[in-house]
Amino acid sequence: MIWFGNTKPDLAAMTTIGAASMPGLLGIEFVDAGDDWLSARMPVDHRTHQPFGRLHGGASVALAETVASVGGAMTLDPSKQVTVGMEINANHIRPVMSGHVTATAKAESLGRTTQIWTIRIIDDAGKLICLSRITLAVIAVA
Fold first, then answer.
1. Which whole number is the average pLDDT over 80-85?
2. 65 belongs to the catalytic site
3. CA-CA distance, 37 to 79, in Å (whole number)?
4. Which of 29, 65, 87, 108 is catalytic?
């Protein structure tokens, strides 16, 4: 298990932490965790649409970065270190008009100064919507 303290993260607490910032504005909620992965979901609605009624690619990237960055932070001692995004890429595969999308971030490499996570975003039918990868910097708490 990769989580700090060898216990799965508190999903409700992670959702609450982002309630007053972008994750909350987009309706992102953490829904599940495994030994080396974390999942969050986001509604596809007026908050996350582009002008033509489809899920905005930027909303997908915000979801991907949120789930991976929070996942990365949960692997560290929060009194000493946090993670921040350094680089993210995303391949948008198919459109979504409504419902929810769920992002699952899986740790690929957990280094001393960087982490790499792969994020798969699927729709309610389980179809792949977006495939993303992020590099996180591990930095000291100020």
1. 96
2. yes
3. 22
4. 65
